Amino acid sequence: MSVTAAAGFEAAGVAAGLKSSGAEDLALVVNRGPLQNAAAVFTSNRAKANPIIWSQQVIADGVANAIVLNSGGANCFTGAQGFQTTHATAEAVAESLSLSAGDVLVCSTGLIGDQLDRDKLLAGVSAAAEALGTDGGDAAARAIMTTDSKPKTAVRSLEGWTIGGMAKGAGMLAPGLATMLVVITTDAVVSSNELDAHLRSATRVSFDRLDSDGCMSTNDQVTLFASGASGVSPTPSAFVAALTELCLDLAEQLQGDAEGASHDIAIRVVGAATEDDAVEVGRSVARNNLFKAAVFGNDPNWGRVLAAIGTTAAAFDPYVVDVSMNGVMVCSNGGPDQPRDLVDLTDRAVDVLIDLKEGDASATILTNDLTHDYVHENSAYSS
Amino acid sequence: MSVTAAAGFEAAGVAAGLKSSGAEDLALVVNRGPLQNAAAVFTSNRAKANPIIWSQQVIADGVANAIVLNSGGANCFTGAQGFQTTHATAEAVAESLSLSAGDVLVCSTGLIGDQLDRDKLLAGVSAAAEALGTDGGDAAARAIMTTDSKPKTAVRSLEGWTIGGMAKGAGMLAPGLATMLVVITTDAVVSSNELDAHLRSATRVSFDRLDSDGCMSTNDQVTLFASGASGVSPTPSAFVAALTELCLDLAEQLQGDAEGASHDIAIRVVGAATEDDAVEVGRSVARNNLFKAAVFGNDPNWGRVLAAIGTTAAAFDPYVVDVSMNGVMVCSNGGPDQPRDLVDLTDRAVDVLIDLKEGDASATILTNDLTHDYVHENSAYSS
């Protein structure tokens, strides 16, 4: 159901011909109201795709009626022609649905540096507008896939209101502010300002903590729409809790489908002086290719964990740190503890626990291992 | 000849039994004077191995008589026992050669987190002291190898004086200040203070610009000895020029032998506002796994170059940047220029030229591609 689980939303996913495979590649999600509140967070990469530049303008007033998303091309570094394509896409949605183009968000995903086929794209918009329905959420979730092996959706139904979402992403997973393409809808009654605050709060501890390969996309966008169709106004804490849980669910689905990965690694940093320190330490390990390759080889090479965190500016003494892997304390006080061959890394889920012994702050970073399949998929992407 | 090309130096390389293969694993280099001047630069990783902690104390006064280096174990995160092993190694060298232990530098390389076999190590020191000779440079260069496929040496003979060196390193190649294990000797007459300044000047634009895999070692050390045995005092500019050229030669040998690499990539950044900006931009590309995997696949995926530099804080406008690969301008002013299939990436050497169009500063970062063999070698290192 994804984005159509909440009342007030219609969606569609169609094949516009942008993907050479002929699969669905254009999704449209429309908020039928009564509210038209929306918020979005965007990649912090300074190299922003044309749809990001467009959508940042659209969302500025906290109102959006619809979002159109295409796979089969990122429309990034495509110059003025590329921006005109984004603009024309929003205009086509607006014309089909009797909206203002200034209230239509646009997202694109795929290869950077190639022009989208504008004719196919605009014909796809017409077809999607025809196909809109309250059962269109699953087709929309399929249409935004690129190298994803499966669609990613999540729904939470609470006391009289619902929140649902869809996500795509399998590589270039290292958000700066937001990440990947995600559309979340709710029928709760929430103002635009609240949506914005709640979305930033939820993404900060979910998508922002996912760092599959250290590579930040040019096209990341997480959008949250509220239709108010349930008539229910949840408390801010209840809404944030449900939204955060939904975002973590989608983030874990992204991690689980990361390109070529054979392990999902959760790096839990505890005892940090600050939460920022915990995030920096966790991210340094998540980005260490030697550690990630070792996990692929089922090798509990904890020295690479310490070598990674030694590159950070976080408060800690390397010679008092403890490191456990899958429950086995392999390093205590910066020296060897249990034998490394007690650690079993054959399961897909890997838990690394790092105790900095500096304070009470903590954070968990989600990442993946570095595998032959990752190299293979990313050495052949544009061919 | 490596470290024994310059007059006044003796060296040896012996098999102490630290490597299970039985290959040479312990090197000793001695400065017979008349001068005993030395300088060293060390990893900036806060997680420092025991020999680094020891050697930083030894070099503080600018005097050192000898350096002993072992492969087969990094002696890092091995606690008090590990530090005692380093100390005992220096004592054994001092006793064999009638020196003070406080003038003996120690380097170790290999797996982090395992204790070295102290008995084997000390017996190896005795054997190396027996084997010292002015023809020992090549054996010493072999003895410091870990996953290196070949020894790395370089020599420059100038007007009456000589400078030579050896290096080891094939992975974890991303220096912070210095990198890897490097020993350089000269028979020029140079004071300790000058050696220190010249070494920092040379490493800043050589080893510091090599970033094979973004992973900084815990054991990196570059040491420079001057014996003064030639009696020649070169001008500072002549000495720095020769030293820098020698360091670049060794850095390129390290790049060319990086674990599993199939391409040597030079990322030249021009038109930067500052040299720091140029280095930051070049390093962001050198650490982008998606770009590195694309080069492995002979795919000139320039969008990944721009996505990488978009994550930096350097002064530039992504929409005016030019990118060329192997002489083909694939991106001009942030948009597509020549077709990407004009770029031929089949040779090992790859040249990426990025023009930020902000100023006159430039820098070149050396890196490698991300390959199946890199994943393979680093998933099986400790097994």
UniProtKB/TrEMBL annotation, chains A, B:
Pathway: Amino-acid biosynthesis; L-arginine biosynthesis; N(2)-acetyl-L-ornithine from L-glutamate: step 1/4; Amino-acid biosynthesis; L-arginine biosynthesis; L-ornithine and N-acetyl-L-glutamate from L-glutamate and N(2)-acetyl-L-ornithine (cyclic): step 1/1. The keyword Amino-acid biosynthesis applies. GO terms for biological process: L-arginine biosynthetic process; ornithine biosynthetic process. Substrate binds at residues 146, 168, 179, 259, 378, 383. The active site is at residue 179. InterPro entries: Arg_biosynth_ArgJ, ArgJ-like_dom_sf, ArgJ_beta_C. One of its GO terms (molecular function) is L-glutamate N-acetyltransferase activity. Heterotetramer of two alpha and two beta chains. This is Arginine biosynthesis bifunctional protein ArgJ. It comes from Labedella phragmitis.
